[in-house]
Amino acid sequence: MTTKIPHVTTTGTDPRIAGARLTIDLDALVANWLLLAEKSKPARAAAVVKADAYGLGIVHVVPVLWNVGCRTFFVALAEEGLRVKAVAPDAQVFVLNGFFAEAFPVYEQSNLIPVLGSLPELARWKELNTGRTEKLPYALHVDTGMNRLGLTVSEAIRFAGESADNGPVLLITHLATADEQSHELNQRQFESFQKLRANFSGIESSIANSPGIFHSLNSGYELSRPGVAMYGGEPLSGVANPMRPVVTSEARIVQIRMGLKGETAGYGATARLDRDTRIAICSIGYADGYLRSASGSGVPLRQTLNNGGCGFIAGKRVPIIGRVTMDLTSFDISDLEEGEVKPGDYIELFGRNISLDDAARAAGTIGYELLTSLGNRYHRRYLYSGNEI
Ligand SMILES: *Cc1c(COP(=O)(O)O)cnc(C)c1O
Question: Ligand 1, residues 93, 142, 174: which to mutate, most atoms within 8 A of Cβ?
Answer without folding.
Answer: 174
